[in-house]
Sequence to fold (539 residues):
Amino acid sequence: MSAASPTFDAQALAAPAPVNKWLVTVSIAFGSLMASIDSSIVNVALPQIRGAVGATIEEITWVSTAYIIATVLVMPLTGFLGTFFGQKRVYLASLVLFVLGSALCGLAHSLPTLVFFRALQGFGAGALQPTQQAILRQTFPPKEQGMAMAMFAMVIMVGPAVGPTLGGYIVDNYSWQWIFYINVPIGVVGTFMTWRYVIEPPDVLRANRERAAAQRKHLDIAGIVLMCIGVSTLQYVLEEGPRDDWFDSPVITGLSALAAVSLGAFIIRELTAVAPVVNLRLFRDKTFASGTAIGGVMFAMLMGSMFLLPVFMQELLGFDATQSGTTLMPRTLAMMVVTPIIGRLYNHVPPAITVAIGGLFFALGSYQLSHITLMSSSADIVVPLLVTGVGFACLFIPLTTAALTFIPRPELADAAGLNSFVRQIGGSFGLTIFATMLSNYGKRATASVGWHVSSLRPEVVARADAMAKSFQAHGMSAIDAKQTALRALAGQVAREGTVLAFEKTFLLQGIIFLAVLPLLFFLRVGSGPKAEHIEMTME
Fold:
């Protein structure tokens, strides 16, 4: 595809064909679902991949980092690419690139080639979700926008939840290569259906043709360069910072400074450019800004929760990967059941009220999770998961739908790209923040518990002696039994400290989300002149 070549078909502008909205929905769901699953499915296979390519623990993390950085880089450019080539072509090209990258990942036999192909896969994945969101908004009539975003929400929320379970099953029963190969036949079906059933609206094509002419005349090369530098360095810092002790590392410190400077320059550039590559002026719309901001926080909570619970279940409760993934399924099922209901209620219940209810459900679920202990079973975790699942369903659809309410149809791809970008960055911040908090709280809680486990306390001495005698009864010498007993006590202290850290982190999740709810004041869609004008335009 060339920017200088004709990018739109005049015949398509003149005679639009009828569109089956449900066929369009199914067609473009394949790529987005695979992209969302692939953001998490690889994590459970990293030990096997590390052995296959001969990488260290630090090196193998690049398999995930390369994918995420590439995905985040493309998301804000979705509108820019759609302007030049059309959203359907961008989606098809991205899906083909994703499928090609998946096949090559399965064939890779060294770490550098695998990381390169994962980045290729990520470049394809980056535009899939924003383009799907924009196409759905343009395909469904105004009165069914809530249902359109319900379909989108099910893909976005279910993918990360299903990924670890599916990955664990594939790795346990087949080989790690099949977590990539499985994308190929699904991608082929999705490519054919998208090519066959998705038709772009003539008014959007016409507006994009005009915008493309302005973009070619004032190509924002500086904006593209600054965005690539700023976003890639920021994402690297968020991914690698916890492993490198943050600002104790000169690399993290330097890249943080570079990210701050380049992103600051990028914002200034985009707000002053004649034809910006990323339309940051969309944030002047209070509804879009508030919906996108709360959505970013919501995704931070979702990704943080998806990180915390599996770690708790596997490291403290002794679950394997498949068990922990199965235990998380009730939340996914709750989201799948409630999401269509929320979509149908969207036009009857103000979004701010639905979001507030979702926030309360999430805070309640987080409070319940803050009471899990080493004695908790899968059944004890199911109820909080169901509650948070209902909460996420109440949050995602109104936020995504309302955020784009006042966005003109030709700019929906720009807005969807920014909305997806903020969600992805929010998820990265959530993982980083909660992983760091968990580590810090764990150290403090362990030290606090350890202070009470002292040899000056008779009950502690009695407990250590009883453990030592038990070890002696199993054939250990007196010295070895005593040392083993002390190590066992230290392990128990560390486990109790870690439990306290999890409890505090879960509780803080709910408090943080409640603190963001005042932004709902700006989440007003109403039915004023502006909304009526947009509805008439869409019809």
User: Anything to note?
Assistant: Residues 444-498 form one domain. The chain has 23 helices and no strands. The chain has four domains: 1-217, 221-272, 281-436+506-539, 444-498.
